[in-house]
Design goal:
Blueprint: E1 2-13, E2 16-28, E3 33-37, H1 44-51, E4 59-64, E5 67-68, H2 74-84, E6 85-89, H3 100-104, H4 106-111, H5 116-125, H6 141-153, E7 159-163, H7 171-187, E8 191-195, H8 199-202, E9 207-212, E10 215-216, E11 220-221
Parallel strand pairs: 3-8, 3-9, 6-7, 7-8
Antiparallel strand pairs: 1-2, 1-4, 4-5, 9-10, 9-11
Helix pairs in contact: 5-6, 6-7
Length: 223
């Protein structure tokens, strides 16, 4: 499903060059639940964004569903993302002026896939069928993240990328969010790629990939 070869990504701060990804190779199987871990600044979020086509590497390639995504034009890559990927972020990134239902349906409105009934059913599945007309400010953090999960799934993508999806939640709500995400992903054999700093949460996945010095340091089965 996802293959990365010889990824290089660096940033310049003044005259100093910081190498974040340094010749990194990676393969993720369809349906895998993979956690990207590492110390702060190790490059785990940069890696996720590069795998998702959001940060162009200076060298290397990312192959998803047989497509070299960085060989595509920016417009084609954006369309590919909307078709194949869903995104969940730590800060939810809901539009404050839209209702929960409208926020959940944003990806279908942009991509032209799915429909209003699909979004309503997803909102029921995430436990918010009675909160459709509420604004984000009227929802708890856990409820806002449930809206974000529904939004990520609304286009029925094959891959879900999640950047610290439980980072703003207490342990109880965080575990409930992961339970829900895993359950929904398992139903359609979706691939999950999740960035986390929490080693206990990472143990719940199929595999932990640890990033250090711009490379994979110690991939291990989470058992």
């Amino acid at each position: 499903m996802i293959t990365a070869r010889n990824l290089h990504r660096s940033y310049s701060i003044g005259a100093k060059k910081i190498e974040v990804l340094h010749g990194l190779d990676l393969h993720i199987e369809p349906g895998e639940k993979v956690f990207l871990c590492g110390s702060s600044g190790a490059g785990k979020t940069t890696l996720m964004y590069t795998l998702a086509g959001l940060e162009t590497p200076q060298a290397g390639e990312v192959i998803i569903a047989g497509e070299n995504i960085y060989a595509l034009t920016a417009t084609a890559r954006s369309k590919f993302r909307n078709t194949h990927m869903g995104f969940i972020f730590q800060n939810y990134l809901l539009l404050p002026e839209l209702t929960a239902l409208e926020n959940a349906g944003l990806s279908t409105a942009i991509g032209g896939r799915g429909n209003a009934e699909t979004v309503r059913k997803l909102m029921d599945r995430v436990g918010l069928g009675n909160r459709l007309d509420h604004l984000p400010s009227e929802l708890s953090g856990g409820e806002q993240q449930r809206v974000a999960i529904a939004r990520a799934l609304a286009n029925n993508p094959s891959i879900i990328f999640a950047d610290e999806p439980t980072g703003n939640l207490d342990s109880r709500n965080g575990n409930q969010i992961l339970d829900l995400l895993f359950e929904l992903a398992d139903e359609d054999h979706k691939t999950l790629v999740i960035v986390t700093h929490d080693s206990h949460i990472a143990q719940r996945g199929d595999r932990i990939i640890t990033i250090a010095d711009g490379q994979i340091a110690a991939p291990a089965d989470a058992s």
